[in-house]
Amino acid sequence: MELDYLQVEEAAKTLYIRALKLLPPDIKEGFKRLNALESHPTGKTILGTMIRNIQVAEDNTNLLCQDTGIPIYNVVVGQGIQWDGFALKAAIVKGCERATREHPLRSSVVHPITRKNEHTSCGPGIPVIHVDFSDAVHHFSIEMIPKGSGSESNSWLKMALPAEGVDVIKTFVIDCVLEAGGKTCPPTIVGVGVGGTADLCMHLSKVAATRALGTKCRDSEGARLEQELSAVVNQLGVGPQGLGGDSTAFAVHVELAATHITLNPVAVNMQCHSARRARATLSPDGFVYGY
Amino acid sequence: MAHYDFQMPISEAQARQLCVNDTVSLNGTLFGIRDATYIHLFDRGRKTHFDLQGAAVIHTAPNVRKVAVSVEHPSGYEPICIGTTTSARMERFTRPLMEQYGVRITIGKGGLFAASQEAFKVLGGVYLAVVGGAAALETTWIEQIEAVDLDDLNPESLWKFRVRSFGPLLVTMDSHGGNLYTEVNEAAQEKRASVLRALGVK
Asked: Tens-of-pLDDT digits for all 202 residues of chain B?
C-alpha cells in the first residue's frame, strides 16, 4: 500500500480539530468513576462543571478548552507501507497549518526567543512528529495530541542514584503531584517515565501521560508500580483544580526503559483533565477516525 | 458562603466584602489579559487606552474569528472559544495592575501566591477561580468582544469582553488573608507521610 500525501494532509488537519472537540470515551468514563467517588462538595461541583463542559462542546461543536496546545502527531507505519518520510512530515505540517487557519484555531505556538506567533501552530521543530513502526503489514495510523501548557509547564526530571532505589521514584512522583497542586488542571493523568537517558525518560513520561485510561504498562514491574501509585495518589486531597477533594488524578501511568548501571532517572509529565486525543487509521477506503 | 451578582466595575468596598468560598457572577465588562500583555504593559512601558478602574481581568487568550466590523462584532472579532489559563506565571503583575490601573478582580485557575495575596489585602482585591478547561461552557457566558487593544500581541491582546452571568466563580483568595489553595496545599502536605508509608517508602 502506498501513502497518498494529500490524504495524510487532510487527516492531519481533521485530527487536530477533532481532538480539540471530542473527548475520548475512556476519559469520559474516568470522569464518571471519579464523580461517583468524590466526597468533597467543592470537588463535586467542579467535576460537574467539567462534565457539563464536555456536553456543551459536543452540542455546540466547540473546542473543549481554549488552549489548542502544542500539536503532537504520533505516526505508526506497518511493514507493507510504501512511504516517503520527508513527504509524510511535510503533509502533516501542512495539515496542522491548515487546521489553524481554516477552522480557525488560536495558534499557541511562538518562536522561543522572539516570541513571534506565525498563526499556523507551527514553527521550528513543531508540530512534534514521532514515527514508530509496526509488524502489521497494512497498518498506518496517526494519533494527534494537542498538549495543553498548564499541564506541560509542570514537568520534572530527576537523575536519581541507583542506591536510592524505587523509593526515590515513588517519593518524587508524590512530591510532583503536591507541587503541581491546581496548576495542572486536575484531575490529571500523572505520567511517569522511569529509566533510559534523560531525554528518553522525559519522553516516556509524556507517552505515559497521554496513554488511554485503562491501559497498562507492558512491563510487569512498571504495571505494578503504576497500580501502587494510582491506589494512593487520591489520598492527597488536592482535588479538582487544586481546591480540595478526592479527584486529584484519573490514574498514574508508568512507562519504562532500561538504563545505565549508574543511573536511576525518573520524570513526571501530566495530562490535564481535558485529556484530548484523536486517531486516524488507514483502511482501503481512506482514513477512519477514532481515538 | 454568600453569592454576589456584580455589575462591573465594582468599588473597593464590594471587593472587600468577599470572603473565601463565596461565589460571584459578573455582568458587563470583563478584560482578557495574559503573559505577553502583562510583559508589554509593565516591562516594556506600553499603555492601554482602556479604563480598568474597578475592573475584573481574566487570564485568557481566546480563539477568535476575524470578521467585518458590525454592530454585533464591534471589535471585528467573533468569539469561538474563550477559556482560562494558569495564573501562576503572572504572579508578579497582580500588584502593578491594581496600583497603576485600579483593577479589583483577577480571575484565573490554579491560584496566585504571597505577593498577590498582599496586594489584595493592601489595595482591596480578590482572586476568583473559574474551572479551567471548561472553555466551551465559559464561552456561552460571553456575549461579545466589544473592543481590543495591543492587538499586535494577538492572541495575547488586551480583550474587552461583554459578559452576562459570567460564573458562578469561587472566591479562592480574599482581601482578609483567606486563601483556599494554601489551605488545601497544607492539608495535602500533611498527608504526604502517610501516603509514602502506604507505598512502603522507608
From this structure: 899 999 999 999 999 999 999 999 999 999 999 999 999 999 999 999 999 999 999 999 899 999 999 999 999 999 999 999 999 999 999 999 999 999 999 999 999 999 999 999 999 999 999 999 999 999 999 999 999 999 999 999 999 999 999 999 999 999 999 999 999 999 999 999 999 999 999 9
Nearest residue of chain B to residue A273 (CA atoms)? B133
Give the gyration radius of chain A's Cα atoms. 19
In the CATH hierarchy, which fold is given to the domain comprising B3-198?
fumarase (3.20.130)
CA separation for the pair A154, A257 (Å, rounded): 22
Give the residue from A63, A68, A67 showing the smallest Cα distance to A21. A63
- How far apart, in whole angstroms, are the C-alpha atoms of residue A274 and residue A152? 13
B-chain residues near A160 (CB < 8 A): none
- Distance, in angstroms, between A22 CA and closest chain B CA? 11
Cα angle for residues A281, A268, B198 (degrees, 5° grid): 115
Please give the residue of chain B at the shortest CA–CA distance from A181.
B185
Taking CB atoms and an 8 Å cutoff, what residues of chain A touch B185? 178, 181, 238, 242
Amino acid present at B157: S
User: Which residue from B88, B170, B191 is facing A237, i.e. has the nearest CB?
Assistant: B191
Residue B84 contacts A where some CB pair is shorter than 8 Å: yes
- Burial class, A217, CB count within 10 angstroms (exposed 0-12 / middle 13-18 / buried 19+): buried
The full set of domain ranges for chain B reads 3-198
Maximum CA pair distance of chain A?
Answer: 56
Using the Cβ of B199 and the Cβ atoms of chain A, whether some distance falls under 8 Å is answered with yes
How far is Cα A130 from Cα A135, in angstroms, rounded to an integer? 17
Helices and strands: H and E segment counts in chain A? 8, 9
* Ranges of H-type helices in chain B: 12-16, 35-38, 94-101, 114-119, 135-139, 180-198
> Helices (H) and strands (E) in chain B — how many of each?
6, 9
Q: How far is A132 from chain B (nearest CA, A)?
A: 31
- When scoring A243, A271, A274 by the number of chain B Cβ atoms within 10 A, the one with the most, hence best to mutate, is A243
CB contact under 8 A, A149 and B86: yes
CB within 8 A of A59, min separation 6: which ones? none
ipTM confidence score: 0.94
Domains annotated for chain A, with CATH where assigned, are 5-20+64-148+275-290 (3.30.1330), 150-271 (no CATH)
